[in-house]
Amino acid sequence: MLASEIPVNYWTQLMPGILLFAVGLSATVAPLTAAILGSVSEQQAGIGSAANNAVSRVAGLIGIALVGLVMGGKLDLDGFHRVVTVTAVLLILGGIVSAVGIQNPPKRPALRARQKVPSQSTRSYRIFRPGR
To answer: What is the DSSP string of 34-101?
Structure first.
């Protein structure tokens, strides 16, 4: 994408970079989400998912807002090249931080899995009767 020049040929100058970006996102977003949600307990899975979605949305909004700052307020080829370069650098830094900082240790067995479940014949049932 840095080799693009005017006149821009979408299929030869932009499409290969867009496809590479798409493959990279699809290879990183799902494992990253699994690592994040795997680090919270089952009881807090909803909160973990909500926090993950909120951080993702806010980061997207901040990223879009910063594109205008990086471009310099003028939509031209030099601004596009600056945005592509800054995006590549930030993605590389994010990959390094993720590789170093994200760990997904094996989960300990749940308490229920370790407890012996009573058989059908030893279970006691309560019948709810209003007024009692």
So the answer is: HHHHHTS-GGGHHHHHHHHHHHHHHHHHHHHHHHHHHHTS--SHHHHHHHHHHHHHHHHHHHHHHHHH
Cα 126 from Cα 81, distance rounded (Å): 71
Amino acid present at 112: R
Contact 38, 107 (CB under 8 A): yes
DSSP one-letter code for 44: G
Residues 11-67: tens digit of each pLDDT: 988 899 899 989 988 888 888 888 888 888 888 888 989 999 999 899 999 988 888
Residues 41, 33: Cα–Cα separation, whole Å: 14
Is residue 2 within 8 Å of 78, Cβ to Cβ?
no
* Residue 108 per-residue DSSP state: P
Residue with tokens 């989400």, as numbered in its chain: 33
69-83, pLDDT tens digit by residue? 888 878 888 888 899
Cα dihedral 51→53→58→60 (10° resolution): 150
